[in-house]
Design goal:
By secondary structure, the chain is mostly beta strands. The chain has one helix at about 45-50, and strands spanning about 25-30, 35-40, 65-70, 80.
């Protein structure tokens, strides 16, 4: 996998600055890997997309800055990655 596979143009005006008044109206990208299909949907449609055997993991943690910069070949864009760890668990322990 190449870092360049993660590059895309995102104009600043397309980055949300605050949540929508109707949070269920948020946009959702639905990917059907088997068919190679991507569909723009609304988060309000999310429950109908779940199948009986799906596992839904809910993350209700607050966001905090946790990132680092890495180096790459001169021809690659500057990579960035984020990491999280459970509260009270030392780095590298899980």
């Amino acid at each position: 996998m190449l870092v360049s596979e993660f590059h895309y143009d995102l104009p600043p005006e397309r980055i949300a600055q605050e949540p929508l008044p109707d949070r269920a109206g948020s946009r959702l990208l639905h990917v059907t890997r088997q068919l190679g299909r991507w569909q723009d949907r609304s988060f309000r449609e999310f429950p109908a997309l779940l199948r009986p055997d799906d596992l839904l993991v809910v993350n209700n943690t607050r966001v905090f800055p946790a990132g680092f910069l890495a180096t790459a070949a001169a021809s690659e864009p500057r990579p960035w990655a984020s990491t999280i760890r459970r509260r009270g668990v030392p780095a590298g322990a899980g």
